[in-house]
Structures are given as C-alpha cells and as structure tokens.
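Propose amino acids for all 342 sites.
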C-alpha cells in the first residue's frame, strides 16, 4: 500500500466536510466533494482508496454512488464507509446491497471516526495483498503456458505433455479464483471473514503438502468476554474485538494471515513456521494485547487472550489440525488464561 492513502469525503455540508478533515490524522491525501456527480468525477480522475460517503446527497443517494464506485473499481482495492444520521432495517438492507464495507452513524466523535478509518485501511491492505497474490498466480499461469509451448516442441509425446500442462494450468486457475473470491473481510475486526479464513486454511494446508514446507496455526480467544459485555456494554465488546484484531494484525509477519473464527475467537496462519516460531509469535500477540488499552466513550479497560498453538502434521486434514489448535487454546484457558499453550 502507498505511504499515503487517498481519502475521499463526500457530504453536502461544507461545514461538516471541514470538520471531517480536521479529524483525519497525518498520512492521508484528502479530497472532499459535496455531490454524487462530483464524487464520481473525482473517482474517475484520481485513484482513491477509502471513501466516507453520506447517504443523502443533493443530486442522488449514497447507495447508488457506492454501487457505481464498486463497479468502477472492480479490479482494484477500494473501501467505502457509508454515513447517515439515522439507520433502520431498510437502510441496512440497502447498505448491504450497495456493497459498502462499513457504516457509521452521524454525528460521531473524532475517536470513532479515526477507528473506522484505521479499520478501513487495514481491510484495504488485506485487499491489496490478495490482489498481489492473484496477479502472482496469473503470471504463473502465463509462464506455465510459455514453458508448455517449449516442452511440446521438444517432446515426442505431444498429447501427454499437453495434458500435464493443462492440468497444472487448471490448478493455478483454481487457486486464483479462490483468492479472488476470498477478498471478503470481517467489518468489525478488519481481519479475514470466517468464509475467507476457511478458504485460506484449505489452501495453505494444500500448499504445505505439495511444497513439503511447515505450517503452524494459532487459536486466539478473548478471556472472559461475556464479563466485558456485562460490565462495559456490547459496544465496548465490539471495541474490544476491533482493538484485538488491530493488535493481531500489528504483530504478524508479512507472510501470515489472520481471520475472525467466530464471536471472540481468532485464527492465525503462519506459513513456513515451526512450532517454536509459532510460540514466539503467539507470545508477542498475547503480550501486546495485554498492554493495549481498549477505549470506549471515555472509558478505558484492558483485555487478555488465551492462545493455543500447533504445527500441522503430515497427512493431517485441515479440520483435524484446527481441532488440535483449538484444544491447545482450551488448555490455556484451563491453566489460568492469559497464556500460550501448545
């Protein structure tokens, strides 16, 4: 991702746009417009990455602009956060249909805006990573086609050589489609969604088998999460999940993947990592989360996590492996929480 993200703010109120600009932290190139037409014109002229878009515009609805922007940027990463002063079931349905990545209710405080913006940039980085992988597989397919052409000229058995090359091409194309389809992210944590995570687990296990490399995984569970909700409220619980997702992302290596497994559980894939490396990464995550404060409406509290780790065994299925990682996490719970177990 570029060092400076291009941020587009769209709202009919010049005063509100000015207030929004003052909330943006350094590191963003900010553009602002007041109408739907201006938003589309700006998006066509400038490659924006994140858009905060009001639903009510003087010349149209933000839903329609959102759908048009998603179509315009169908081949490149884009994060859209819709804004509105009120929201109901019909509006939520329209938001989903339009393809928005997040929603924020006006008015909002600076901290909430900055958190939503940061979550959008995390999702954007994940999108860009998936696009880069997709391009890698496309290049691999093209290289395979060129190699196949040379082999066909050199080998006597042309049919056999063509069958081998075609099969390899199909495998690469299948992986490419899986990666493209797996670009969905969990809005709250900014990590991979459950569906995308499951696809990534399947793919990484296959890679491990075919390339004869190591793979380790971590199951991370927030300790006493129900108590957080009961004490601080459900919105504070959401903030705890968002903060935890951010912390996990911060602690990972560039080749790692993380997703929200469900509720307050997260799963981390560590390609090429032995169990010793996995335990080191797990302890770094555990310590970082323990030292990180969760803030919500002027209140500050902290959370801890229990982490299980396991290295994939030869001939082990994805389900068997994940179950072992999950069992190690529950062992950490039983031994007192806020710890790492293998």
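Proposal:
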């Amino acid at each position: 991702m570029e060092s400076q993200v291009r941020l587009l703010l769209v709202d009919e109120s010049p005063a509100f746009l000015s207030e929004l600009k003052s909330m943006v932290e350094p590191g963003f190139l900010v553009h602002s417009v007041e109408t739907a037409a201006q938003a589309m014109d700006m998006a066509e002229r400038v490659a924006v990455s994140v858009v905060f878009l009001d639903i009510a515009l003087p010349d149209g609805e933000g839903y329609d602009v959102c759908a048009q922007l998603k179509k315009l940027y169908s081949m490149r990463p884009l994060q859209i956060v819709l804004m509105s002063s009120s929201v109901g079931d019909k509006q939520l349905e329209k938001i989903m249909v339009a393809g928005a990545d997040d929603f924020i209710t006006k008015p909002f405080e600076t901290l909430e805006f900055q958190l939503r913006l940061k979550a959008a940039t995390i999702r954007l980085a994940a999108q860009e990573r998936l696009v880069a992988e997709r391009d890698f597989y496309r290049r691999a397919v093209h290289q395979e086609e060129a190699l196949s052409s040379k082999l066909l000229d050199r080998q006597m058995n042309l049919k056999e050589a063509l069958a081998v090359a075609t099969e390899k091409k199909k495998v690469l194309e299948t992986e490419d489609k899986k990666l493209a389809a797996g670009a969905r992210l969990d809005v709250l944590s900014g990590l991979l969604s459950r569906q995308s995570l499951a696809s990534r687990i399947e793919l990484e296990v296959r890679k491990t088998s075919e390339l004869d490399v190591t793979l380790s995984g971590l199951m991370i569970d927030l300790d006493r999460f129900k108590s957080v909700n009961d004490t601080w409220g459900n919105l504070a619980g959401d903030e705890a999940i968002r903060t935890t997702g951010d912390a996990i992302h911060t602690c990972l290596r560039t080749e790692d993947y993380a997703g929200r497994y469900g509720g307050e559980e997260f799963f981390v894939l560590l390609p090429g990592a032995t169990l010793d490396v996995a335990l080191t990464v797990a302890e770094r995550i555990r310590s970082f989360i323990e030292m990180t404060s969760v803030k919500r409406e002027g209140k500050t509290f902290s959370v801890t996590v229990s982490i299980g780790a396991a290295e994939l065994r030869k001939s082990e299925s994805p389900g068997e492996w994940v179950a072992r990682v999950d069992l190690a996490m529950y062992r950490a719970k039983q031994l007192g929480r806020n710890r790492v177990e293998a």
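The first strand starts at residue 5 and ends at 10. The chain is about 55% helix and 20% strand.
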